[in-house]
Amino acid sequence: MAIVGAGPAGYFAAQALQNLQSDDLAFSIDIIERLPTPWGLVRSGVAPDHPKIKTVAKVFEKVATAGNVRLFANVELGRDISIEDLKSAYDAVVIATGSSLGKKLGIPGEELAGSMSAATFVPWYNAHPDFKDEQVDLSTTTAVVIGAGNVAMDVARMLALEPSELDPTDTADHAIDAFKSSAVRTVIISARRGAEHAAFTSPELRELPKLEHTNVIIEKRDIDEAVARAGENIEKDVKSNLDAMSLIADQVPAGHERTMKFQFMATPKEIRGSDKVEEIVFTKTGSDEEFSIKCGLVITAIGYEAAPLEGIPYERGKVVNTDGRVTENLYVVGWAKRGPSGVIGTNKSDAADVMKLLLEDLKEPKPVTDIANALSGVEVITQGHWEAINAAEVAAGEAKGKPRVKSVARDELLKLAKL
Ligand SMILES: Cc1cc2nc3c(=O)[nH]c(=O)nc-3n(C[C@H](O)[C@H](O)[C@H](O)COP(=O)(O)OP(=O)(O)OC[C@H]3O[C@@H](n4cnc5c(N)ncnc54)[C@H](O)[C@@H]3O)c2cc1C
Questions:
Q1: Ligand 1 mutation pick, 46, 93, 99, 312, max ligand atoms within 8 A of CB
Q2: What is the pLDDT of residues 322-354, one digit of tens each?
Q3: Tens of pLDDT along 12-22?
Q4: Domains detected in the chain
Q5: Are 18 and 45 in contact (CB under 8 A)?
Q6: 8 CA closest ligand 1 atom index
């Protein structure tokens, strides 16, 4: 089996295949990953101040070292190997490449300097090699984050935190330096619809009042109106969210220097500025009433789309599939299949369901072709190399009281791999 993408969906697919093995059936699994490091968004997405969530990586490492899995990292499908090569070398190919492109608002001014997507900002602070040279200008006092999901909340929190709180985390060193000299003191997180429609999850909301150096402000009126609109037959999750927001709204702001403020019912209309962002204009959703906020940074966190890969059918930001089946001996799991929804665990049940279908479809095994031969010119990072990188990063972190110090540049990572 070939699994393309070493993120949660890729590892959970490998785990599901391991669980489907029996006395009569054994799988050999090759995981192909474009970066020199595995773990997908667990390394480059999940917020660095949420280290517990990243402990799921222990599960990935258990899968990786169970004996029937090989890692081919630093190998990109579409660059180093084609989908046709994979389809002819393996009994089945599973696409688990996630969705990495940020959706756009499609409003004037979105291309101005100072306007960027969470799909750029998040991997920049999480030490993703492709984003290390991004220019993130934090010289403004006010930033606006557009979106009403957990990614928007992560972005707003990272901007509004007292940056010394990031010292014991694995945030990229370049980002910690930038946050320490940041002028941002007010972060507005802006939702198009009312609080009853917000896609935040309540555990994340309930954590916000624990921020020690940041005022978190939600207007009580916004929540009261949302409760009234939601009515009596309110869904459990929505109620739990509104309860969490209500608790925040009841708090007296503590007078900190930094503030994170929620805004609802605001539709972005235009970003203005002569050569960089100076203000963002909104309409009050459902009316023509306009208002604007002076700011120097706008970050959009309104969803992701899959980056298309040659030879794989795409539609509306996802791989075209029926329950994970794409074409003969080609399957898809995770965000590339479903789009950007659910938590890390959602990928586990999803991948298990697809691997059951794969097993049903399985024909006589093909004669073995080892793709290692086709990758002779590529500096492949194997599981052993990755373990060397991992150990070096963790050791560098120990000295500084961090879980790890991430290396950012590809050549640095390859050096740590001792290739
Ligand atoms: C900012 C952010 C924060 C999040 N925080 C949380 C959280 O706190 N808790 C939670 O439960 N969930 C969180 N999530 C959701 C979680 O990260 C996803 O559910 C999960 O990562 C999706 O898994 P995936 O394997 O489909 O995609 P990914 O994690 O994106 O993995 C895809 C992998 O495929 C690789 N790849 C892509 N293209 C190629 C190619 N051509 N060739 C080879 N490899 C390729 C990528 O490099 C990547 O490693 C967060 C998501 C984001 C964006």
A1: 46
A2: 999 999 999 999 999 999 998 999 999 999 999
A3: 999 999 999 99
A4: 2-100+305-416 (3.40.50.720), 104-302 (3.50.50.60)
A5: no
A6: 25
